Amino acid sequence: MVYILLGEGFEEAEAIVPGDLLRRAGLEVAYVGLEGPAVTGSHGITVTADLTLEQVDAQKMEMLVLPGGLGGVASIQMDLFATALIQKAYAQGCWLGAICAAPSILANLGMLDRRRAACHPCVWDEMGSTAVDREAQVVVDGRIVTAQAAGAAYPFGLKLVEVLKGPEEAQKIADAILYRG
C-alpha cells in the first residue's frame, strides 16, 4: 500500500500526479487526510481523501509519499501522528517519497543526514547535513526518493513507480501518457 499524506495547503500537482501514475502501475494508493477527508490544497482545489490518518494500517505500508506546498508541509510537521507515521515508515524500511518543501520534513527528522536529496530552493537552508543536489529533478538515496518541485511531479511519480515495480513498468507508464522527459 502506498499512502500519500495530505495536509491543508498541499501542492496539488505534487500529490495528484504521482498518485495517478502509481495507480496506473496497478499499485494500491490511498490519499490520507490529516484533518479529515476534505483537504484543500495551496491553490484552492479541495480533494476528498480515501482515509483519515487514524485509518492508516502501517503494517501494509510499502511507501509513504509527502507532497510539498508550504501549508501542507507545516500541517504534517505540526501533526504528531503524521510525524510518528513517517518515523515508523523509516524504521520499517518502507520507501519514502518527498517533493518540493517536503524533503525538509525528512531532514528535520534526521533521515537525510549525509544523504543526497533534491528539494525546492526555498528549503535549501533547512536541509542540515543533507547533500542537496541543486540541479537534479529527482534523487534516490537508499530507500528515499526526493524531488525539486511541481515541475518534477511526472519524473518523481515515474521514479516512485520504478522503485516499486521496476524500470520496465515505469517506461510502460511513461509511454502510455506520452511523457517525453
TrEMBL record:
Gene3D superfamilies reported for this sequence: 3.40.50.880
InterPro entries documented for this protein: Class_I_gatase-like, DJ-1, DJ-1/PfpI, Prot/Nucl_acid_deglycase
NCBIfam families xref list: not_thiJ
Pfam families recorded: DJ-1_PfpI
Domain DJ-1/PfpI residue range list: 2-162
Gene Ontology annotations for the cellular component aspect, listed alphabetically: cytoplasm
The protein's name: DJ-1/PfpI family protein
